[in-house]
Specification:
This protein is an all-alpha fold and about 140 residues long. The chain contains 6 helices and no strands. It is elongated. It starts with 6 loop residues before the first helix and ends with a helix.
Length: about 140
């Protein structure tokens, strides 16, 4: 099939793929997991108290940072590579520490968000992103 798509379209399709990956990963993480942690922060503090030896406020705060702040930055394509790193770390901890002993199916969402975020660390955000707009602005001067 590659012979049917010229190089210009390949670049466009890659950038559209990265846009979809960023939007889905960032917004799904925020809406599915992060939003509840903001709306019930006190409950999250109580649940997370003592997790990995941390006070509940710290553990819940780190989750909110990754699943809200970083997730929305990833969706926008702003500081994408940097913002995706805390998501990768959070999801690895969730999959292998927080969900230790659970079956694979229960770990899949954390693994998905972790792998998708790692892919964005490696590839960057693509052309349709805040990062790209800023890069083009500074390169044109």
């Amino acid at each position: 099939m590659e012979f049917l798509i010229d190089d210009e379209k390949k670049g466009l399709l890659s950038d559209l793929g990265l846009l979809l990956l960023r939007l889905w990963t960032g917004l799904a993480l925020f809406l599915g997991y992060g939003l509840i942690k903001v709306t019930d922060f006190a409950g999250q503090v109580e649940i997370r108290d003592g997790f990995m030896g941390m006070p509940g406020e710290l553990a819940a705060g780190l989750l909110v940072f990754a699943e809200v702040v970083c997730a929305l930055l990833v969706a926008a394509g702003a500081l994408t590579r940097l913002s995706a790193i805390p998501i990768v770390i959070t999801m690895v901890i969730a999959a292998f520490v927080g969900l230790a002993g659970e079956d694979f199916a229960t770990r899949v969402p954390a693994l998905y968000f972790g792998v998708a975020s790692l892919a964005l660390v490696l590839t960057g955000p693509g052309r349709f992103s805040v990062d790209s707009l800023i890069d083009r602005r500074f390169r044109s001067d």
